[in-house]
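To the wet lab folks,

You asked to see what we're planning to order before we commit. Fair enough. Below is the target structure as tokens, and below that is the sequence we designed to fit it. If anything looks off to you, flag it before the synthesis order goes out.
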């Protein structure tokens, strides 16, 4: 896959994408990642890329021209690529969008800095605008890195065998169950007996129940979308009866 990122701090994208599975994907040419810096396309001696907002107010705005020239250069390499801008005003980036984007051969990402990007660039050159969540970060580079990671994990050959299998058998729409590894007991804390039983039917049921209960406690919004079986409903009812004080939305459990 070819991904070009337009951004003022390519070092951020470079650092993040050299590590782990994405780093290996780059080494194996499963990912051809390039950054283009709008500063290299600025037309003045100071290489200016930002200016004060029309209408006044704090901060600076990324100028149209350097971005448009960088975008034209990216387009020359990949004429059919979709262009997506990362911004706090974008629609939320989801696993569904990651799956759709993973089907494409090329993608152009635009990461902003300062207060934002001149709206005319977004109108003229962006096919979509994505946010990675309802919190404020300092620029679009980290958001672009998040999006690249989420998309590349879905491309054939990027994950190891074990990880790919896990992804397929993953309890879709629920949070994951808790995990334990050796030793059986550490710092006086025991591993749940069922996981040591060797009874894989029982282990699978326990893991699914734990996933359900955690999802109810921490992410009740996810349960509204996932239709529960009667057995699932019974598991939750039993948990609520056994733990009358406990409710969802908690930061702890
Ligand atoms: C005062 C208004 N702020 C907008 C909510 C200003 C502002 C904050 C952060 C302007 C730009 C930024 C930089 N952030 C991003 O470029 C960004 C982002 C984010 O801050 N949160 C979640 N997703 C994203 S994607 C790009």
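Sequence we intend to order:
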């Amino acid at each position: 896959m070819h991904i070009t990122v337009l951004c003022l701090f390519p070092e951020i994208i470079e650092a993040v994408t050299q590590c782990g599975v994405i780093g290996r994907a780059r080494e194996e040419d499963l990912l051809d990642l390039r950054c283009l810096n709008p500063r290299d396309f600025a037309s003045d001696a100071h290489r200016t890329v930002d200016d004060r907002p029309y209408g006044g107010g704090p901060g600076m705005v990324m100028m149209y021209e350097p971005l448009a020239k960088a975008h034209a250069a990216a387009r020359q390499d990949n004429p059919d690529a979709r262009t997506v801008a990362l911004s706090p005003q974008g629609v939320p980036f989801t696993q569904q969008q990651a799956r759709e984007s993973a089907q494409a051969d090329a993608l152009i990402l635009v990461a902003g800095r300062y207060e934002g990007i001149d709206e005319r660039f977004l109108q003229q050159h962006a096919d979509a605008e994505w946010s990675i969540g309802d919190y404020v970060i300092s620029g679009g580079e980290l958001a672009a890195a998040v999006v690249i990671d989420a998309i590349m994990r879905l491309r054939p050959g990027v994950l190891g065998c074990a990880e790919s299998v896990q992804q397929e058998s993953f309890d879709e729409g629920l949070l994951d169950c808790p995990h334990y590894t050796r030793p059986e007991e550490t710092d006086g804390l025991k591993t749940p007996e069922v996981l040591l039983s060797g009874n894989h039917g029982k282990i699978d049921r326990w893991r699914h129940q734990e996933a359900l209960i955690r999802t109810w406690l921490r992410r009740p919004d996810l349960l509204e979308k996932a239709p529960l079986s009667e057995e699932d409903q019974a598991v939750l009812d039993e948990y609520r009866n056994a733990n009358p004080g406990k409710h969802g939305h908690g930061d702890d459990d």
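Structural context that might help your review: Residues 162 and 176 are 16 Å apart (CA to CA). The chain has two domains: 2-152, 171-242.

Thanks,
Computational group
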